[in-house]
Specification:
Blueprint lengths: L15 H9 L19 H8 L3 H11 L7 H13 L3 H14 L4 H14 L2 H15 L10 H12 L3 H14 L8 H14 L2 H15 L24 E4 L3 E7 L16 E7 L4 E4 L5 E2 L5 E4 L5 E8 L6 H8 L3 E3 L3 H8 L16 E5 L2 E6 L3 E4 L6 E7 L2 E2 L1 E4 L4 E8 L5
Parallel strand pairs: 2-15
Antiparallel strand pairs: 1-15, 2-6, 3-4, 3-5, 3-7, 4-8, 7-12, 7-14, 9-10, 11-12, 12-13
């Protein structure tokens, strides 16, 4: 990372006192910024190639947009992100610094500069920039809506044995965003390694002081690392983990509904994201459907932003073209059990299984309705066109939100229920 006028003095050097002071002193003032990524349809010209990992094209489109949005932070963030993915750290820093000087909103660019420092292996710079982001976010409603600052500093604090600070940072993350947002295993390992390699007493002091100032708690010097909340494991059922670059869905085989035996492995299962069109309904788009790989994961490299209900089909599909035609464009209605069953039960063929949960429902079998079924699944199955939807709670299906320039991971324990 190149030296700049705004970089902090190195921690642990002659300038260590200055480093601590600069981290603890707000150096950037936030101004109201009503614009979002949805303000202009033209923003898609940057976001689409960025989401598709066509980073050079994203840079070109960002450069075209900048003259019309010279004070809008997100254009600079997207541009710097595309450069960072290409390992062009000096250029990414220059773009982010330019945005910091011109934009009304500062903290997103401070977060970005911290990410650039992380990639460059400079913990002191990363902590400085995330500290500046934190100062700015404390002046905004809901802390600006971006939990990245607190999530990154949580991993640093936990690795440095600052249990009290780590625990309060993680609580802030979970307060801002439901679903236990965590880094994926690769990113978490990278940030922990950076924390170990760059640790100094001054960095620890900064983290303690920030936690004391804004969260009301620091870390006792003798606090064990286990006192901090540990990151959630990868692929925990129902957990959402955000990471840049793509959407990943993982399936964990549960129990067959009628027997206490595991369902076969779900490699090859169809995974079908269904875009929510309102609070109760979602629309199936079979152009997004993919099959899970041998590890029971399904990767979507490019996803349009929105909230998706995740449906899947673990059964063989003898007629793929017919299966796609049958479900494409159909609406699943979660308003009531009856509307859901009607939308899951296709055509005139009788369903083999049909039930809902998580605590009870009815199976419509060949012998007629069977009650007293405990389940967390709604299934519309016939020989040619099976479709399954899992639930987190009564009439609340698993769903995941895909954001511009970000993607998410979700794990579903499939079809896990007993009579």
């Amino acid at each position: 990372m190149s030296d700049s006028a705004t970089s902090p003095a190195p921690a642990g050097s002659e300038g260590a006192t200055s480093f601590v002071q600069r981290c603890l002193t707000p150096e950037y003032a936030e101004a109201p910024e009503p614009r979002t990524w949805q303000t202009s349809p033209g923003f898609r010209r940057v976001l689409d190639p960025l989401n598709a990992q066509r980073y050079a094209a994203a840079c070109q489109e960002a450069e075209k947009l900048l003259p019309a949005y010279t004070d809008f932070d997100l254009i600079y963030v997207w541009h710097a992100s595309a450069l960072l993915y290409q390992k062009q750290l000096a250029q990414a820093e220059a773009v982010a610094q330019e945005g910091l000087a011109r934009s009304k909103r500062k903290f997103n660019l401070c977060v970005q500069l911290g990410q650039i420092a992380w990639e460059a292996g400079n913990l002191a710079d990363a902590v400085y920039w995330w500290a500046q982001a934190w100062h700015g976010q404390e002046t905004l409603p809901r802390w600006g809506g971006n939990e990245s600052t607190f999530l990154y500093l949580y991993y640093v604090a936990a690795e440095l044995q600052l249990a009290g600070a780590a625990a309060t940072l993680l609580r802030r993350v979970d307060q801002m965003r439901g679903g236990q947002i965590r880094l994926n295993a690769t990113a978490a390992s990278s940030l922990r390694s950076l924390a170990r390699a760059g640790d100094t007493p001054d960095i620890q002091l900064v983290l303690r002081r920030l936690a004391e100032k804004y969260l009301g708690e620091g870390a006792p010097a003798d606090a064990p690392a286990s006192a901090a909340a540990a990151p959630a494991p990868a692929w925990a059922p129902g957990q959402v983990v955000e990471t840049p670059g793509r959407l990943e869905i993982g399936l964990i085989a549960g129990l067959m509904w009628d027997e206490d035996r595991p369902r076969p492995p779900l490699g090859g299962a169809w995974v079908i994201p269904c875009l929510k069109v309102d609070a109760q309904r979602c629309k199936i788009n079979m152009t997004l459907a993919k099959q899970a790989n041998a590890t029971q994961a399904c990767v979507f490299e490019t996803m349009p932003p929105g909230e998706y209900v995740i449906a899947y089909n673990p059964f063989p599909v003898p007629d793929e073209a017919g299966y796609r035609r049958h479900w494409d464009g159909k609406i699943l209605d979660f308003s009531t059990a009856e509307t859901l069953f009607a939308s899951l039960t296709p055509g005139s063929e009788r369903p083999v299984e049909l039930f809902a949960g998580p605590r009870g429902g009815t199976v419509q079998s060949e012998a007629g309705p069977v009650t007293q079924i405990k389940a967390n699944t709604a299934v519309g199955v016939r020989d040619s066109f099976p479709l399954i939807v899992e639930f987190l709670a009564e009439q609340v299906p698993y769903s995941i939100t895909v954001k511009p320039a970000q993607t998410s991971q979700l794990t579903i324990r499939s079809h896990a229920c007993v009579r």
